[in-house]
Amino acid sequence: xxxxxxxxxxxxxxxxxxxxxxxxxxxxxxxxxxxxxxxxxxxxxxxxxxxxxxxxxxxxxxxxxxxxxxxxxxxxxxxxxxxxxxxxxxxxxxxxxxxxxxxxxxxxxxxxxxxxxxxxxxxxxxxxxxxxxxxxxxxxxxxxxxxxxxxxxxxxxxxxxxxxxxxxxxxxxxxxxxxxxxxxxxxxxxxxxxxxxxxxxxxxxxxxxxxxxxxxxxxxxxxxxxxxxxxxxxxxxxxxxxxxxxxxxxxxxxxxxxxxxxxxxxxxxxxxxxxxxxxxxxxxxxxxxxxxxxxxxxxxxxxxxxxxxxxxxxxxxxxxxxxxxxxxxxxxxxxxxxxxxxxxxxxxxxxxxxxxxxxxxxxxxxxxxxxxxxxxxxxxxxxxxxxxx
Length: 389
Ligand SMILES: Cc1cc2nc3c(=O)[nH]c(=O)nc-3n(C[C@H](O)[C@H](O)[C@H](O)COP(=O)(O)OP(=O)(O)OC[C@H]3O[C@@H](n4cnc5c(N)ncnc54)[C@H](O)[C@@H]3O)c2cc1C
Prior knowledge:
Blueprint lengths: L2 H15 L4 H16 L12 H16 L4 H15 L6 H23 L2 H24 L6 E12 L2 E8 L11 E4 L8 E3 L10 E7 L7 H6 L6 E4 L15 E7 L3 H11 L8 E7 L8 H10 L3 E7 L25 E2 L2 H6 L7 E6 L2 H14 L6 E2 L5
Parallel strand pairs: 7-8, 7-11, 8-9, 9-10, 11-12
Antiparallel strand pairs: 1-2, 1-6, 2-5, 3-4, 3-6
Flavin-adenine dinucleotide (FAD) binds next to helix 3, strand 4 and strand 5.
């Protein structure tokens, strides 16, 4: 794609996305056109589309922002194509989605903005996206979807559960990747989760799940999961990970369940002969939120290259927290807990300019930490995080 094509796509999308309520209107219009013109695709989507609409626009924005970075965008699209096999989508479905998106953009942009040249630019962009996804899907030989049986469900905090599953066959994922997951009580509502352990040859997998207030799926995963029920799991996604034999030192910052993909990578690294120095900052609102300190303490004690610093925004547990909170217990090997906003604390140590940086947590925590680090002098190109949708 040449730079003119990219600029035309970006300008039309930004003109919609920048308007107040624009993304919401675009997504509504897209789904209305798609389901009217191609009613056969309705079954791929959940009954309630509110959360879906938000994700759609964020996903398009993510792709549009990376059109000039094919080395990043094409592997992302290939992963997405492999993941989309779980829906059973074929070429005609990609065409239906592409045409409906173009119609929605055209209707929204209006005749003044929408020209023949813009129309051709979108055709080209959509062809690259669909072509890359379909090609990757066609070439993949792993199952389109795995079935995992829940073997353990443990609420370690109010509103946070650790769920362990045994898969029907092992998934070869890299530590740090994530997958889309569907639970039986929420059909077609796939949500991304990051395994907290590296892939095992026997197919066990562990997820850490926080119930988001008002969310469709996560409160059910945390509160209503039963041992023996079966979850569906899609192909691995994402590019976090630490290459073997790297000499680049690392900074990892994780909040809440964001510790899961970081812990999985650290566990994978313990199997290697040598590792660069790693600093991990693990954050929570209250001391009692740091649910994984036991395991982290064992990792830090056994690995000299690893320094782990707990950080909480509040120095005290909330009044409603039971007295047997994890905090009073000793966690040898860990640095003393620091109190404050995690991004500010990490950036307060200096520029970290010699580090590869990974940030995992809620979208707002990732953005804030990233900006704090950039302001402290961390080169933007060294900072990695998963897509925020
Ligand atoms: C790459 C990736 C990896 C992820 N890994 C994990 C994981 O390992 N464990 C885990 O618990 N979750 C993880 N998530 C988040 C998870 O996929 C869901 O988005 C989350 O559980 C909310 O789903 P829901 O159906 O309950 O809420 P929805 O019904 O989708 O959303 C309800 C409302 O909550 C808001 N919301 C959604 N997510 C969050 C959030 N994280 N913080 C604050 N508000 C939010 C939405 O904007 C919406 O307004 C990951 C997300 C991504 C993108």
